[in-house]
Amino acid sequence: DAGITQSPRHKVTETGTPVTLRCHQTENHRYMYWYRQDPGHGLRLIHYSYGVKDTDKGEVSDGYSVSRSKTEDFLLTLESATSSQTSVYFCAISRTSGNNEQFFGPGTRLTVL
Amino acid sequence: QKEVEQNSGPLSVPEGAIASLNCTYSDRGSQSFFWYRQYSGKSPELIMSIYSNGDKEDGRFTAQLNKASQYVSLLIRDSQPSDSATYLCAVGIIQGAQKLVFGQGTRLTINP
């Protein structure tokens, strides 16, 4: 258990509303990641962070923003949710620099109507 | 071109047999390779990491890496029904921060 929690675990929202997903870790890891998982696409990286206030885009970052004001929290925001953002969102951490191993949180299932 | 390719399956194997899962990747400079297991409705779980050419064994699991052929595989010996899951191959990419690229996953079913 990598000490990762995600909230909420399930959310249903309407098109055009803002949504924020939270990832919380208890072990002070430097690297944190947000992925989305969709049938036929596998896991795709949205954004990642390599320290407090240090973030960068992944391969599917359009429509998403992130913030990391504390080591333990990494927030993913959908400014104006669209139906194409219906997905399962996973947060991950990487424990040490150099070996690339990532460990995943339990996931958030988001439905945009 | 997708960077990490897996046969999406489904792959069906009888209980007790060897299950073989394959993955190819396009970035010749990749140095780290991983296999994750994901049960339906659950998050991915890291089961194997491999960094150098050859075989790495852990219990019933063996990961095999061939960097020249850009190929990584996972063998599951004495397959059990509890091994039924989707297996994700992931490759570490060299772009500053640590990042992984995932394949689509192979769905494995072990038949009793």
Write the SSE topology.
The complex is a heterodimer of chains A (113) and B (112).
Chain A: E1 4-7, E2 10-13, E3 19-25, E4 31-38, E5 42-51, E6 54-57, E7 64-70, E8 73-78, E9 87-94, E10 102-104, E11 108-112
Parallel strand pairs in A: 2-11
Antiparallel strand pairs in A: 1-3, 3-8, 4-5, 4-9, 5-6, 7-8, 9-10, 9-11
Chain B: E1 4-6, E2 11-14, E3 19-25, E4 33-38, E5 45-50, E6 54-58, E7 61-66, E8 71-76, E9 85-95, E10 97-102, E11 106-111
Summary keywords:
heterodimer, A: 113 residues, mainly beta, 7-stranded mixed β-sheet, 4-stranded antiparallel β-sheet, globular, B: 112 residues, 11 strands, 59% strand
Commentary on this structure:
The complex is a heterodimer of chains A (113) and B (112). Chain A has strands at residues 4-7, 10-13, 19-25, 31-38, 42-51, 54-57, 64-70, 73-78, 87-94, 102-104, 108-112. The termini of chain A are far apart. Chain A has 113 residues and is an all-beta fold. Chain B has no helices and 11 strands. Chain B starts with a strand and ends with a strand. The mean pLDDT of chain B is 93. The chains are: A mainly beta (113), B mainly beta (112). At the A-B interface, strand 5 and strand 10 of A face strand 5, strand 9 and strand 10 of B.
Instruction: Please state the structural category of chain B.
Output: mainly beta
Separation, N- and C-terminal Cα atoms of chain B: 38 Å
Helix content of chain B: under 10%
Assembly annotation = heterodimer
Q: What is the radius of gyration of chain A computed over CA atoms, rounded to a whole number of angstroms? A: 13 Å
- Number of DSSP strands of chain B? 11
The geometry of chain B reads as globular
Poorly predicted residue ranges of chain A = none
Secondary-structure element sequence of chain B? Answer: EEEEEEEEEEE
Q: For the CA atoms, what is the radius of gyration of chain B? A: 14 Å
